[in-house]
């Protein structure tokens, strides 16, 4: 084979290798996308005072963090029924809840604003053995949750000891080292009191406790007009619900509506705008 032939064959082989790697390389998984969406959240929350949140459970009982903290370790698991990693970690959380059913520990599942019938069916099908609440957006906002699943562990001192974005594959590894000191404090009666927790939450925020603020309505959101409204009317919220962007009340929808109002979309078609926003804000 002459020099020209050798060079041609070499180039063809190089192109084939490049095409093979591009084809074989997998795109980011759902979980990797979630983890990338909130890279600084764990560091920002670890060691921070938990907000004094409340929530209505599917049982119609009220969960109050201030009533539980100091007497129990509280694990909040933010999830959605459409979230694959959420569903994948459920059996592990169920096992862990059963293992610690006689310990001062409570796991609360917090769903992402889905219809109650959908959540009830999911809970029944998965065999969930711990309380579930449906968030209206308040809890997600209080803990800065932007991706699912997100799990927050609050110790006997009322501080966030773990803020995990992504699924829990081994709850013993994730939680056990954090449980022992809190269990010991609770047994000794040295966990934070309700009054002290609320006062410290107030001091930490520089204003009244979070659970008092939550009862107040959100500031009125400016109305969308013109092209922004037309796009929002056509676009489904990428949080995973079945609502349009106009109808959805989640933080993702609010953030996208703000982007539609404030950014200059000149030069992009409506379809390009929706694609850009879906890529930026998608929580799946």
Can you walk me through this structure?
The protein has helices at residues 3-24, 30-37, 41-45, 65-68, 84-99, 116-126, 138-142, 171-187, 194-205, 210-213, 226-234, 251-262, 270-281; strands at 54-56, 62-64, 73-79, 105-111, 132-134, 150-154, 160-165. The radius of gyration is 23 Å and the shape is elongated. The strands form 2 sheets. A 5-stranded mixed beta sheet has the order 5-4-3-6-7. Strands 1-2 form a two-stranded antiparallel ribbon. β4, α6 and β5 (132-134) form a beta-alpha-beta unit. The termini are far apart. The model is unreliable at 17-38 and 206-217 (pLDDT under 50). The chain has 284 residues and is α/β, with parallel strands linked by helices. The protein is built from 13 helices and 7 strands. The chain has 3 domains: 3-27; 38-213, Glutaredoxin (3-Layer(aba) Sandwich); 226-281.
Intertermini distance = 54 Å
Average pLDDT number: 81
Radius of gyration: 23 Å
Number of domains: 3
CATH architectural arrangement of the largest domain: 3-Layer(aba) Sandwich
Principal-axis shape equals elongated
Give the amount of beta strand, in percent.
5-15%
Task: List the total number of helices.
Answer: 13
Question: Could you describe the largest sheet, including whether it forms a barrel?
Answer: 5 strands, mixed
What is the CATH superfamily classification of the largest domain?
Answer: Glutaredoxin
Low-confidence stretches at least 5 residues in length (pLDDT < 50)? 17-38, 206-217
Q: What is the tally of beta strands?
A: 7
In CATH's first tier, which class of the largest domain applies?
Alpha Beta
Strand arrangement within the widest β-sheet reads 5-4-3-6-7
User: Helices and strands, in N-to-C order?
Assistant: HHHEEHEHEHEHEEHHHHHH
């Amino acid at each position: 084979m002459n020099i020209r032939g050798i060079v041609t064959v070499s180039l063809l082989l190089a192109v084939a290798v490049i095409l093979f790697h591009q084809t074989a390389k997998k795109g980011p998984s759902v979980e990797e996308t979630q983890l990338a969406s909130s890279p600084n959240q764990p560091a920002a929350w670890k060691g921070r005072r938990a907000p004094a949140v409340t929530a209505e459970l599917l049982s119609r009982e009220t969960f109050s963090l201030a009533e539980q903290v100091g007497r129990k370790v509280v694990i909040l698991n933010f999830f959605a029924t459409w979230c694959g990693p959420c569903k994948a970690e459920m059996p592990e959380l169920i096992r862990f809840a059963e293992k610690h059913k006689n310990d001062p520990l409570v796991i609360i599942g917090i769903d992402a604003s889905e219809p109650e019938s959908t959540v009830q069916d999911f809970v029944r099908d998965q065999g969930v053995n711990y309380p579930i609440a449906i968030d209206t957006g308040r809890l997600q906002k209080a803990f800065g949750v932007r991706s699912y699943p997100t799990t927050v562990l609050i110790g006997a001192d009322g501080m966030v000891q773990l803020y995990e974005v992504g699924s829990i594959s081994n709850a013993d590894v994730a939680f056990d080292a954090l449980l022992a000191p809190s269990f010991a404090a609770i047994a000794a009666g040295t966990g934070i009191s309700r009054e002290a927790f609320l006062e410290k939450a107030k001091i930490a925020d520089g204003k009244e406790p979070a659970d008092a603020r939550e009862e107040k309505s959100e500031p009125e959101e400016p109305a969308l007009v013109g092209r922004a409204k037309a796009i929002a009317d056509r676009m489904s919220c990428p949080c995973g619900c079945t609502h349009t962007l106009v109808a959805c009340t989640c933080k993702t929808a609010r953030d996208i509506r703000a982007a539609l109002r404030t950014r200059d979309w000149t030069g992009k078609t409506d379809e390009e705008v929706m694609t850009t926003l879906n890529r930026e804000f998608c929580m799946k």
